[in-house]
Amino acid sequence: MEYSFPHYLLSKQSVDDRALNRNVIDSLKSNLPETPIRIIEVGAGIGTMFARLLRWDMLTKAEYILVDEMAENIESAREWIPIWAGQSNLSVERSGENQLRVFDSIRDIQIKFECADIFEFIQKKPQPADLLIAHAVLDLFPMPESMPKILSLTKNLAWLTINFDGVTSLEPTIDLALDEKIERLYHTTMDTRPTGGDSRAGRHLFSHLKTAGAEILAAGASDWVVHAVNGNYIAHEKFFLHFILHFFEESLKGNIELNVDEFSTWITKRREQIERGKLVYIAHQMDFLARTPLPEGEGI
Ligand SMILES: C[S@@+](CC[C@H](N)C(=O)[O-])C[C@H]1O[C@@H](n2cnc3c(N)ncnc32)[C@H](O)[C@@H]1O
Known about the structure:
Layout: H1 5-19, H2 22-31, E1 37-42, H3 48-55, E2 61-68, H4 71-87, E3 91-94, E4 99-103, E5 108-115, H5 118-123, E6 129-135, H6 146-151, E7 154-171, H7 176-191, H8 201-211, E8 215-221, E9 224-226, H9 237-252, H10 260-275, E10 280-291
Parallel strand pairs: 1-2, 1-6, 2-5, 6-7
Antiparallel strand pairs: 3-4, 4-5, 7-10, 8-10, 9-10
Bound molecules: S-adenosylmethionine.
């Protein structure tokens, strides 16, 4: 199996569709300013959130800036968005390598692709957005110090979604003690990444947002729940599960607390569970909608 990260992001789409917290989305809908709006999405991957907002009729007229540091993701976004738009009866106009217009008689969105590290992008002081989106990415950044920098990208709303929050569950049990140990060690790798990260990012965002002066308008769980229906996983979710196990393998290989053969057998058994449609995967996550403080001097 080829573990392509852009393919993983595509396979994650249907899982995220189910997971995103509907109360938080309702709050986003009722707080969105009049169009046209400026949206900045950080860690945007291949652009599936952009497509989702159109699929869910949440975008009409907007400027949408997709920022991601991985060239492979931005390249995939440049290719995938026009294909998706064509299949969705939307017209596409390309104006230069990094700009795209996606439109029909009702919707008109100008997309800009920025292949950049988010913190370098922030240093360029881009015009703040009406809506900042950070989807499945905030749990990778050093906190709390990153929060004010990230919030400087918006003058109004921040929709911060799929923030991992300390619970991974794989069923059925293989060996309770080993399952729990692997889960614990996997979470520890999130907490000890040199670039930052937090395996309990979700719950900690309450205080990080407050400390940065943001007001939390809505919050709620956005758990991934992946299981087979009649023995089959829907859409690309079988690949998604194999990729999750790939994350386990990559982050835990060489871990001195794990016996190499035991871990390898555990991975093989989990992969067999996927093939038989038996594996149930749950990851607890949290979504937030926050309103950011106005920059000094711009208050009412
Ligand atoms: C788990 S993926 C989520 C991608 C996308 N939001 C989605 O859910 O499909 C995290 C993304 O954040 C990007 N990323 C991580 N650190 C970044 C940074 N410092 N600056 C910009 N992008 C970053 C990665 O390249 C990756 O595409």
